[in-house]
Design a protein that fits this description.
heterodimer, A: 332 residues, alpha/beta, Rossmann fold, 2 domains, 4-stranded parallel β-sheet, 11% strand, globular, B: 408 residues, Fumarate Reductase Iron-sulfur Protein, Chain B, domain 2, 4-stranded mixed β-sheet, 14 strands
Chain lengths: 332, 408
């Protein structure tokens, strides 16, 4: 079995085994991951989907997992006691209920509220969309990221089949990693994959309805371009164009390190090397603060989580892009 | 879990954490990064043709890597025709043995900076044979005297502030050297001057080799490489086969892009060396060893490169010009410098590490890379680290080892 490869960091199998068992990196249930939509009455069928890739929903659990991994030592290579604890965890599989028992509901509420805002903003823009709810699959991006190309291909085929069964033509994607998967990887790994994947900002700009947006109080923001959104997908102007439509909001760019030259938030190594991910985040927070804005916006769940961690105790406030839009639509 | 691989991960981790604790590294690298970006944007504005030239250089490198065997034969023939001696080393061991046999023992050697020599620990090997070896690049000398490895491919001592240099030089040179950069540079000059004169052998690498003329290109600013390759009676160059290009004209293109992305409008010196020193001034009789070396030896080395060339994804890493620009853009490098890597640095370096060292050493590097892609934005030949890392991780997942049992 590939997870037995002696070259892999020990922390990795936890995540990959969960992917295998439940289709998402943390082995979470669909009901839990779709609970953010309770009460929104989103249709479950339609040619256009809002696709969350479960990123925001997984974040609070991911943070708890990182604490677990930290206890396992660097890369999951700790002393012998830690290593055997890790082996024990693996043999048992990751007990989600026990592992995540310590989770505070506050974090879960925050990240779920972000996804809800994405849906509500799309609605206000008059975009018709459905949501697969409990059945929404994870994109598999992490499998590819960690080197499991074959498993990624299998997963992608399943997702693609589901989309086909449901007659999905277009997905509006909030996750840069999922968007990269659909645009650049699925076509390589799944024959005939032809679902049109739009980023949330692209979908807003395409919407027929244009709504005036304004904030109650003037706000200076800077934009943290997520690496994959900016460099791999070349989506840098779209979010800026949308922000330019918000009255009372002014965008201050980070000197040099913006758009295609944006700096990483550290999240990609958060699960394997948290002690290095943290200073990477702290450096990026410093850079964002050097824009002179008091608030940094981002458009990726992982950036959001890691930058919020990096900004804790600092003056800079880190928010999701959609939080400001949501406010600006409410205020009007 | 193999103990060997565990050791590679642990040592890598300890290196990373040690560097994180040393705040000086971060401060020095931040200054270096700011200066690099400013200098590069200035020099690219002055020489805007560089960007298109870099695209051309990418094609030159692709073509050269495709045809390395033919180019190697041609280059070796031409070195010999120019009265130099040419060797081909398949492995690091072979390269060390060849150089060791030419040098012998109880010699004084001066050495110019070379990642290829660093790759095979050539200095240590020659010292073990009973020779005295002096690094002459200022940064490399500092690193040698500190008993460390380089922190950056072009600025090996980028992490050492002038105060530390002063203490180090005072101790080694047996006289008070104040923490004043100009005085430190002067002290190093005085200290090394005698070594050049005494040296039996000069050792260098090369940035480029043009196969059609058998010429070595060595780009530098300090002037140490011209002394190393010009003053002692014997010059030995150790060159990776990825440095071969077809023609002299192509070599100049590669050279210009290399120094430009190393933030120089033009370097102080471009040494083009095509054979030992010679004169025919007395009776038109060609005599070797006029003012420069009487002997020139060129050791072409494979050491895993031809394997890398066979891999459709990892071969990109062979296009690297070693301009060092990517390192200033890497967020991990910004914190830990050369501790992010083994022999070669940052994400794409994992492909190099896997081939010139081992898969075990490459594993933690591959899983440390953020795959954020800013290095790719900077790279003049657009080496795609994202695909290299995904591919490397794929190899690690397969547990596939082209090099047999796990080793360090």
């Amino acid at each position: 079995m590939k997870l037995e490869s002696p070259y892999l960091p020990k922390a990795l199998p936890l995540i990959v085994e969960n992917m295998r068992k439940s289709g998402n990196p943390l082995g979470m249930s669909g009901a839990k991951l779709s609970s953010w939509a309770n009460g929104l009455d989103l249709p479950s069928k339609g040619e256009t989907l809002l696709y969350t890739s479960c990123d925001y929903q997984l974040i609070p659990y991911m943070l708890t997992l990182v604490d677990q991994i930290k206890r396992m030592g660097p890369f999951g290579y700790g002393g012998s006691a830690l290593a055997s604890a890790a082996m024990g965890l693996r043999r048992l599989g990751l007990d989600v209920t026990a592992t995540f028992a310590a989770l505070t509901a506050k974090d879960e509420g925050y990240y779920n509220s972000i996804v809800r805002m994405y849906a509500e903003v799309l609605r206000k823009y008059g975009v018709d969309f459905a949501y697969l709810g409990e059945e929404e699959p994870y994109s598999g991006a992490l499998l590819y990221e960690f080197g499991f190309a074959e498993e990624f291909a299998e997963h992608a085929k399943k997702v693609s089949r589901l989309f086909k069964e449901r007659n999905v033509r277009t997905v509006i994607v909030t996750s840069p990693h999922a968007l990269e998967a659909f645009r650049l990887l699925y076509p390589k790994f799944v024959e005939g994959f032809d679902v049109n994947a739009l980023h949330f900002t692209e979908a807003l700009l395409k919407a027929k309805q244009k709504i005036p947006m304004a904030l109650k109080e003037p706000l200076d923001v800077t934009l943290h371009d997520p690496c994959h959104l900016a460099r791999t997908l070349n989506i840098t102007e779209e979010p800026r164009e949308i922000l330019s439509q918000v009255r009372n909001l002014s965008l201050k760019e980070v000197p040099y390190a913006n758009k295609r030259w944006t700096g990483c938030c550290g999240a990609p190594i958060e699960t394997l090397l948290p002690s290095l991910a943290e200073p990477v985040a702290a450096k990026r927070v410093e850079e964002l603060a050097s824009s002179g804005a008091g608030t940094a916006l981002t458009l990726c769940a992982f950036c959001l989580a890691n930058l919020r961690k990096g900004a804790s105790g600092k003056a800079l406030k880190v928010m999701d892009f959609v939080e400001v839009l949501h406010q600006a639509l409410e205020a009007k | 879990m193999s103990e060997i691989i565990g050791k590679a991960y642990r040592e890598n981790y300890e290196g990373l954490m040690g560097a994180l604790r040393n705040e000086r590294i971060m401060i020095a690298l931040e200054r270096a990064r700011a200066a690099y970006r400013q200098n590069l944007s200035k020099t690219l504005a002055k020489y805007p043709h560089t960007i298109a030239l870099a695209d051309e250089v990418r094609k030159i490198k692709e073509h050269s890597v495709d045809n390395w065997e033919g180019l190697l034969k041609e280059a070796m023939d031409n070195v010999v025709e120019n009265k130099g001696q040419a060797y081909f080393a398949r492995t690091a061991d072979e390269a060390r043995r060849i150089v060791g046999e030419i040098v012998g023992s109880k010699k004084v050697l001066v050495k110019a900076k070379s990642m290829t020599c660093e790759e095979i620990d050539l200095r240590q090997h020659l010292q073990e044979l009973g020779n005295e070896v002096w690094e002459t690049d200022l940064g490399e000398l500092i690193v040698q005297l500190r008993g460390e490895g380089p922190m950056h491919i072009l600025s090996p001592a980028v992490h050492v502030p002038k105060e530390d240099v002063a203490v180090l030089f005072s101790k080694v040179m047996g006289k008070e050297v104040p923490p004043d950069i100009a005085l430190e540079v002067a002290a190093a000059r005085e200290f090394l001057r005698q070594r050049y004169v005494e040296a039996d052998v000069g050792i260098s690498g090369a940035n480029i080799v043009s196969a059609d003329t058998g010429s070595l290109f060595v780009i530098e600013n300090e002037g140490n490489a011209r002394l190393v390759t010009g003053l002692p009676p014997v010059h030995i160059a150790v060159v990776g086969i990825e440095k071969l290009v077809a023609t002299l004209a192509e070599s100049f293109k590669v050279a210009e892009v290399t120094w430009r992305y190393a933030q120089y409008a033009v370097p102080s010196y471009l040494n083009v060396i095509s054979g030992p020193s010679k004169t025919g001034d007395i009776e038109k009789t060609t005599t070797y060893g006029a003012h420069g070396p009487k002997e020139m030896h060129v050791v072409f080395m494979d050491n895993g490169r031809s394997e890398m060339a066979k891999d459709p994804v990892l071969r990109q890493a062979l296009y690297c010009l070693r301009c060092g620009g990517c390192m200033y853009e890497c967020p991990v490098f910004a914190l830990v410098g050369g501790k992010f890597g083994y022999k070669y640095f940052i994400g794409y370096g994992a492909a190099w590490t896997a081939h010139v060292a081992s898969l075990a050493r490459a594993a933690p590097v591959a899983y440390t890379c953020l795959r954020c892609g800013r290095c790719v934005e900077r790279c003049p030949v657009k080496i795609d680290t994202g695909s290299i890392i995904a591919h490397m991780r794929g190899l690690l997942v397969e547990g596939y080892d082209r090099f047999g049992e796990p080793k360090l």
